[in-house]
Amino acid sequence: MGGCTSKPSSSVKPNPYAPKDAVLQNDDSTPAHPGKSPVRSSPAVKASPFFPFYTPSPARHRRNKSRDGGGGESKSVTSTPLRQLARAFHPPSPARHIRDVLRRRKEKKEAALPAARQQKEEEEREEVGLDKRFGFSKELQSRIELGEEIGRGHFGYTCSAKFKKGELKDQEVAVKVIPKSKMTSAISIEDVRREVKILRALSGHQNLVQFYDAFEDNANVYIVMELCGGGELLDRILARGGKYSEDDAKAVLIQILNVVAFCHLQGVVHRDLKPENFLYTSKEENSMLKVIDFGLSDFVRPDERLNDIVGSAYYVAPEVLHRSYTTEADVWSIGVIAYILLCGSRPFWARTESGIFRAVLKADPSFDEPPWPSLSFEAKDFVKRLLYKDPRKRMTASQALMHPWIAGYKKIDIPFDILIFKQIKAYLRSSSLRKAALMALSKTLTTDELLYLKAQFAHLAPNKNGLITLDSIRLALATNATEAMKESRIPDFLALLNGLQYKGMDFEEFCAASISVHQHESLDCWEQSIRHAYELFEMNGNRVIVIEELASELGVGSSIPVHTILNDWIRHTDGKLSFLGFVKLLHGVSTRQSLAKTR
Ligand SMILES: Nc1ncnc2c1ncn2[C@@H]1O[C@H](COP(=O)(O)OP(=O)(O)OP(=O)(O)O)[C@@H](O)[C@H]1O
Ligand SMILES: [Ca+2]
Ligand SMILES: [Ca+2]
Ligand SMILES: [Ca+2]
Ligand SMILES: [Ca+2]
Q1: Whether residues 335 and 428 fall in one domain
Q2: Where are the Phosphoserine residues found in this chain?
Q3: Are both 241 and 182 inside the same structural domain?
Q4: Smallest CA separation from ligand 1 atom 12, residue
C-alpha cells in the first residue's frame, strides 16, 4: 500500500519545512510520542460497526438517508466514495480519523507478535484503572430534559433537549452524548476533556456553535449546546447535486473563513473541518452556518508545530501527513470544501485511503474539467491559493477573506490575522541587513496585499502618531480575547515582541515586518517584483558583508561546504550581497525559524 503507509516514492520531494524525522511514516512505525498522539479508542474501533470508509462496495453507492434520522449504528452504510459528490457520498463522517486507520493496520500486523500481545494486555489492564471523572456537574436529570436523537458520530450521538429551569427554561438545545464505555484509553478521555475545554473557552463568534454546559454521570458525558436545526452543510451540498453558484459558494465560505480565522487567532486549530461539521441554524435557505465538533481540535501556540496525524482523509493537509503543521492545515480543508462547493467533485480522490493520501501529497487538483472552464479566474485562483501544498504559501483564513473573489462580492470586516504576530516576531529578530531587504521588498507590494496590511495595521490600534506599540497590540488582543488565548499562550508570545516596547512601528515598517516572502513569491509578478526590490536595495541598504556574517544571518554554520555555497551569494567585485544572496537572505530567516520550531 502506498500513501501514508509506505515510504514516499522517489518522486515525492522531501518536505523542506518539515523536521527531519517528519517524513511519512511507514506501516509499522510508531508515533513519535505514543503517549501524546491522539489514538482514538482502539478497542472501540474494533467493535465499531463502521467499515473502513474506503471499502469499495459498489452496490451501495447511495447515501443512507435514514442515518440522520436517528438510526442506530447498524444503519451506517459504507458506500463507494465516488469522486462526484452529486452521485454519491460516503456516509457522513465515516471517514475514520486517520490515526485509527494507521493504528488498526499496525495492530493487525502486530497481533501475531507475542511482545505486542503482551503490551495489549497491559493496555487493557490499564483501562480498568482509568479515571473517567471529569468534574462536570452531575445534575443533568434535574436541569435538562432529553428528547430524541438528531445526529450521530463516531464517538457519540446528539439529542434535542430542553432546559427544565433557570434562565434558559424551555429553550431548545442539543446535547451530544459521549458514552464513557467508548473512552478506553487515557488519551480518549483527554480528548473529551479537551473538546469541552475548547468549546467552553471559545465563545462569542456568530458562526461557532454556542456552548452552554457539560454534565456527566457514570455512563456518559453530556455536552449541552445551541441547537442547530438546519442540518449539515453536507446535506445541502448533496441536495443541490453538489453544485453551487459562485455567489452561493461565497456566502458559505465567508462564514467558514470568518470563524476559522477567529479560532486561529485564539490559538485553536480545529483539525476536522468538513461539510459534516458545519450545521445550519434553521431550515431556511439563508440561515446561519455554525462550526461544530471540536473533538479533534487542539490549542496551538503561535510558534508551535503539531505532529499528530488526525482529521478525515479527503480533507487532510499534506503537512499533516508530514507531521509538522499548525493552523494552515485548517485552511487546506477549507480549500477542499471550496473545491467541492464549486464543482461537486473532490479534489483529491482515490479508492483507498492510502491513494487519497498520495493524491494529497502529490497530485494537483484538476481545474480543466467542467464546470471549471466556465468559472471565473478569481474563483480558481482563490481555490488554488487555499490548496497550495506549501503551507507557507497558502493564504490564511483572514487573507482569504481579502481575496478579490470574496472582496468583490461583499464588504467584510477582515479579522485580525495571527500570522501578523509571527511575522513581526521574526522581523524583530532579524539583522538590519535583512530588515533593509524586507523594506525594499515591501515597496513592491500589490494593491491587494496593501489592503490586507492596512486592515491588519488598523486592528493593532496605532496611536495618534500612526505608530503601533506593544501596548496597542496588547489592547487590540484584549478586545479579541477569549479564554482560549491563555491556553495557547498568546500573551507569552507577546513578550517576544518586546522590541516594540519603547520604539513604535509605523505603517511603512509594519509592511516590511509583515510581508510574507513565501506568499509574495507565489504571485505571478514575483520575478518582476524581486528584481525591482533588489534595485531598491542596491540604492538603499546593500552593503559589504563577509561570509561568516552572512552564515550567521542565515542561521547556518560556516563550515567549508557552506562557505562554498555562500560564496556565490556575495558579489566578488565589491563584497556586497549579490541578487542571489538577496533572495536567499529574504527567505533565510524562515529557514532558521522552522529549524527552531522543530526543536
Ligand atoms: N448543536 C447541534 N445541533 C444539532 N445537531 C447537532 C449538533 N451537534 C451535533 N449534531 C449532530 O450530531 C452529529 C454528531 O455530532 P459530532 O460531529 O459532534 O459527533 P462526533 O461523534 O464527534 O462525530 P464524528 O464522527 O464526526 O467525529 C453531527 O453530525 C450533527 O448531525
Ligand atoms: Ca457525523
Ligand atoms: Ca462530526
Ligand atoms: Ca468528532
Ligand atoms: Ca497541544
Answers
A1: no
A2: 37, 312, 578
A3: no
A4: 151
Q: How many domains does the chain have?
A: 3
Helix 328-343, helix 377-386: angle, nearest 10: 150
Q: What is the CA radius of gyration of the chain?
A: 25
Q: So which residues are the catalytic ones?
A: 272
Flag whether pLDDT at 206 surpasses 70: yes
Residue 552 sits in the same domain as residue 421: yes
Q: What is the rounded CA–CA span in Å between residue 448 and residue 435?
A: 22
Nearest ligand (C-alpha, residue 271): 4
Residue range 91-115: average pLDDT? Answer: 55
Tell me which of 362, 382, 406 is where a domain ends: 406
Q: CA torsion, points 563, 565, 571, 575, in degrees to nearest 10?
A: -20
The band of 104, judged by pLDDT with boundaries at 50, 70 and 90, is low
Q: What percent of the chain has pLDDT over 90?
A: 58
- The model's pLDDT over 143-202, given as tens digits with 9 standing for 90+, comes to 999 999 999 988 889 999 999 998 999 999 999 999 999 999 998 999 999 999 999 999
Q: From the CB of 156, is ligand 1 less than 6 Å away? A: yes
Q: How far is CA 8 from CA 16, 32, 103, 146, 332, in A?
A: 14, 18, 19, 49, 21
Nearest CA to ligand 1 atom 17: 293
Ligand 2 center–CA 127 separation, angstroms: 26
| Residue 395: domain span | 229-406
Which atom, in ligand 1's list, is nearest to the CA of 290? 1
For residues 318 and 372, membership in a common domain is answered with: yes
- pLDDT tens digits for range 411-425: 888 999 999 999 999
565 and 542 within one domain: yes
* CA-based nearest residue to 340, from 312, 361, 314: 314
What letter does residue 408 receive in the DSSP assignment?
T
